[in-house]
Amino acid sequence: MLTSILNTMNMKLNFEDIKKNIKELKKIGEGWRGVVYSGYLNGEKLAFKVPSDPIHIPAIQKEGMILEEVNKRGIGGQLVLKGNDFIAYRFIEGKHFKDVINKENAKKIFSQILNQARELDKLGISKDEMHRPHKNVLVDENLNVYLIDFERAKKTENLQNVTQFIQYLISGGSNYYLIKDKRKLIELAREYKKNMTEENFKKIKDFLRFD
After folding, report:
1. Exposed, middle or buried, 6 (CB in 10 Å: 0-12/13-18/19+)?
2. Rounded distance between C-alpha atoms, residue 45 and residue 54, angstroms
3. Are residues 29 and 102 in the same domain?
4. Which domain holds residue 108?
5. With the C-alpha atoms ordered 65, 131, 173, 133, is the resulting torsion angle positive or negative?
6. Which of 73, 90, 107 is a domain's end point?
7. Domain total in the chain
């Protein structure tokens, strides 16, 4: 299979080397460091992320390494290729969080995000954007949640995925899901920050009535 061959070549590939093999290639997003395209390679729909400028190649390579780690916990788009100046992962058929969230589905969506934030904390990876999920979370038609855009993510001891998402719940998230005692939630978040045990995380979930 072409995908398998490309994968074995790994870092030897540049995006220009495979462009001619990608069908229906189109730009679907652009950020400060990267441009995202969608297209079909060997019959599989993928998202391709390439640097907006050569100076950002190391950031794209780092994101590929982070995806390899978080994929082990079922987080993020499934990495398929990691080239010299691009990464490619399975295309996620979903809508941005901000276009889906409402009072009826908030509990299910928020619970999944919080659980994935916990997994990132356990991996020792800080995404650094969990307090603003509007453009960094996709939700499919079955309300399954996918974290995207790991450009800022890094290995660190200063983990704040769960606590950042709680910041969001207390502010914007409270428009969709009622939190009766915000001070108590802040207190639980502080306890978790000091000691990131399963017990302290469970206290947060129980308080929020999340699965």
Report:
1. buried
2. 25
3. no
4. 95-208
5. negative
6. 90
7. 2
Q: Are residues 135 and 63 in the same domain?
A: no
Print burial letters for 37-61: b (CB count within 10 Å at least 16), e (below 16).
Answer: bbbebeeeebbbbbbeeeebbebbb
Beta-carbon count within 10 A of 24 CB: 9
Give the chain's mean pLDDT.
93
Is the pTM above the cut of 0.85? yes
Most distant pair of Cα atoms in the chain: their distance? 56
Task: Say yes or no to pLDDT of 211 above 90.
Answer: no
What would the mean pLDDT of 34-44 be, rounded to a whole number?
A: 96
- Higher per-residue confidence, 6 vs 196: 196
- Cβ distance 134 to 96 under 8 Å? yes
Q: What is the mean pLDDT of residues 46-69?
A: 96
Looking at the structure, tell me whether residues 75 and 150 fall in a common domain. Answer: no
